[in-house]
Amino acid sequence: MTSIGILGAGRVGTNLARKLSAAGHRVTLGVRNPDDTAALAADIGPQIAFADQPTTARATDIVINATLGDTSLDRLAGLRTELSGKLLVDVSNATRDADDGLPGALCYPGSSLAEQLQSALPDTHVVKTLNTMLFMVMTAPETLATPPTVYLSGDDQDAKKTVTGLLGDLGWQPAWIEDLGGITTARATEAMILVVPPVLRRHGFRPFAVSLAR
After folding, report:
1. 152 touches 164 (CB < 8 A)
2. Which of 200, 3, 197, 170 is nearest to 91 (CA)?
3. Which of 4, 91, 101, 104 has its CA 20 to 30 A from that of 193?
4. What is the Cα–Cα distance from 70 to 161, expressed in whole angstroms?
5. Number of CB atoms found within 10 A of residue 21's CB
6. What's the pTM value of the predicted model, to 2 decimals?
7. Is 26:50 a contact under the CB 8 Å cutoff?
8. DSSP 8-state secondary structure symbol assigned to residue 179
9. In degrees to the nearest 10, what's the CA dihedral of 67, 162, 136, 23?
10. What is the pLDDT along the chain (214 residues), one digit of tens a residue?
11. Rounded to whole angstroms, how far apart are CA atoms 32 and 6?
12. Cα(39)–Cα(50) distance, rounded to whole angstroms?
């Protein structure tokens, strides 16, 4: 059983918290506003703990970044001490919204949020994954009609091996996991977010993943 902290208590964070807790991990959900915890606890159950984000980062073994991507860098750079020596799983996409609220442009063209986080947190092992799908697919990949792909980017092989185990707990089969290489490859998967808005505008909010077909 692993101690996992999730920064961000939106749809992505709470969805991951439920599934990882059900898989037997000790999960702490890091929230910005302590006043939100009562409503969240009623929604997701008593088995998940709550704390502020610095405490969550400090007290857990693995930390998942599920904060809004356009503010993640500033927020997590301020947690450099708490995240030192930790594995940080980054599932966010850093984008600027279009007029309809969907992603319109990348915040870090020619780079990626994951690369920026790794640079700002040199004592942390950053692994990018789960950012090429709608949030419900992260924890239920088997519900798609076509086997989906989840990508891994990171410089530390042991960190990626640990994340591969977590992906298995979320329902991802080994054949669906594609290790792209170092953290610089995250710029490719983060750019895939630009596929999402036209798909949603055309088909509505239906589960899908940007996958590799062979």
Report:
1. yes
2. 170
3. 4
4. 28
5. 18
6. 0.95
7. no
8. E
9. -110
10. 789 999 999 999 999 999 999 999 999 999 887 666 766 776 777 789 999 999 999 999 999 999 999 999 999 999 999 999 999 999 999 999 999 988 999 999 999 999 999 999 999 999 999 999 999 999 999 999 999 999 999 999 999 999 999 999 999 999 999 999 999 999 999 999 999 999 999 999 899 999 999 8
11. 12
12. 11
What is the helix (H) or strand (E) element at residue 64, kind and residue range? strand 62-65
Q: Distance between CA 87 and CA 125 in Å, rounded?
A: 5
Give the ranges where 37-179 is alpha helix by DSSP (H).
37-44, 53-59, 69-77, 80-83, 113-120, 135-138, 157-169
Cα(first)–Cα(last) distance of the chain, in Å? Answer: 35
What three-state secondary structure class fits 50? strand
164 is written with which tokens? 């591969």
Residue 173, C-beta contacts closer than 8 angstroms, at least 6 positions apart: 141, 147
- AA letter at 50: F
Tokens of 88: 């940080």
- What is the phi/psi pair of residue 55, to 5°? -65, -40
What number of CA atoms fall less than 13 Å from residue 93's CA on the CB side?
25
Report the distance separating Cα 151 and Cα 177, nearest Å: 6
Q: Which of 207, 193, 188, 203 is nearest to 102 (CA)?
A: 193
